[in-house]
Amino acid sequence: MMLAKRLLLPLALMAAPSWAINMIVVDARAGSYKPGMSVSSTAMVALKEGERVTMIAPDGRSVTLRGPYNGVVMKAGTAVQNPKAALAALISTRNDR
Are 37 and 59 in contact (CB under 8 A)? Predict the structure, then answer.
C-alpha cells in the first residue's frame, strides 16, 4: 500500500499544472484584454503586431508580452521583471483612471 502511494503521488502532481497562478492585467494595448482582467498563467495568448499586455502575479512578479506572440502567459521557471517595475505599472494604471 505504501509503495502504491509513493508511485501515484508523483504522477498526480505531474498531471495538473500546480504552478498555474492567476495573473491580473495591469496594462493592455490589445483588443481582448482590459486592465483588471484575471488570466491564468497557463492560458494561451495570441497578440498581433503592435499589441502589448502587461500582467502581474499575486507575489508581485510581472510579465509583459508583445506581439506578434502566440503562446502561454508564463512558462514554468520563466524569469520575470522586477516587482518594483510591476508595482509602478500598477500605480500608473490606477492614476490614469
Answer: no
pTM of this prediction exceeds 0.70: no
Q: CB neighbours (10 Å) of residue 89?
A: 19
- What is the side-by-side order of every strand in the sheet holding 22-28? 38-40, 22-28, 52-56, 62-66
Q: How many helices (H) and strands (E) does the chain have?
A: 2, 6
Dist. CA 24–CA 5, nearest whole Å: 37
pLDDT in tens, 19-64: 678 899 999 998 889 999 999 988 899 999 999 999 998 888 888 9
Give the burial string for 21-46 (b: 16+ CB within 10 Å, else e): bebbbbbbebeebebeeebebeeebe
